[in-house]
Design a protein that fits this description.
By secondary structure, this protein is α+β, with helices and mostly antiparallel strands. Among the domains are: 4-63, Orthogonal Bundle (Arc Repressor Mutant, subunit A), CATH 1.10.10.10; 144-215, SH3 type barrels. It is built from eight helices and eight strands, in the order αααββαααββαβββαβ. It has a six-stranded antiparallel sheet. A two-stranded antiparallel sheet has the order 1-2. Helix 2 (26-33) packs across helix 3.
């Protein structure tokens, strides 16, 4: 049986590079996990010994093929549970992450498969992150940060990072959700003004850095 800590480590390493290309360092990994750098360095050494990651001193931490397989298994569990909690139990999209962090380690594969079937085999979680299939394949949308969209662009919300629940609550209050169309009206000193189905609102830099969009069809 794989230790919970091992599952958490590989999942965080995978998630770090899922939407960008910069590899993760032990320092960033420690910050993401809320652990001391010395603790993370020691654990990374154990993961190397188990064949789950590759790491050279002062270098980035990268998953091996075995590490990625385990990471995808955990990502699938986490995101299916998030979708389940939102659809079946009325959780808000800003509330599910911590619950899923606990449940992902304890649900049986049989129950997880039943949840997947009950939900109709969803392709993404409540935040737009792709849910890996049982065979480990992933279909990731072709999306880019809203912060990088051109002035006047008309785009569709494809994914919203769940790292900051306050951003999710803010977007919810503004009436902005997945699959909504946005038009970049103008850049301001404090962000970008966008037009959406609920009207117009100004999005601050931290929000722009949390929203991924795709071109409107």
């Amino acid at each position: 049986m794989v230790a919970t800590a091992v599952e958490d480590y590989v999942k965080v390493i995978y998630a770090h590079t899922e939407w960008q290309h910069e590899k993760i360092s032990t320092g960033t990994l420690a910050a993401r996990l809320g652990l001391a750098a010395s603790t993370v360095t020691e654990m990374v050494g154990k993961l190397v010994a188990q064949g789950l990651v590759e790491h050279q001193k002062y270098g980035a931490v990268e998953l091996t093929a075995a590490g990625e397989t385990l990471a995808l298994r955990m990502v699938r569990r986490h995101r299916l549970i998030e979708a389940w909690l939102v659809r079946q139990y009325g959780y808000g999209w800003d509330e599910v992450h911590d619950e899923a962090e606990v449940l992902e380690h304890s649900l049986s594969d049989r129950l997880l498969d039943a949840i997947d079937a009950q939900l109709g085999h969803p392709a993404r979680d409540p935040h737009g992150d792709p849910i890996p299939r049982a065979d480990g394949t992933v279909e990731r949308p072709d999306a880019a940060l809203l912060a990088d969209a051109a002035d006047g662009a008309r785009v569709v919300v494809a994914r919203i990072s769940d790292r900051d629940p306050a951003v999710l609550r803010h977007l919810d209050a503004e009436g902005i959700a997945l699959d909504d169309e946005l038009e970049l009206v103008e850049r301001t000193a404090s962000g970008v003004r966008v037009r959406h189905r609920g009207g117009e609102t100004e999005l601050a830099p931290e929000t722009l850095a949390s929203v991924w969009v795709r071109p409107r069809s």
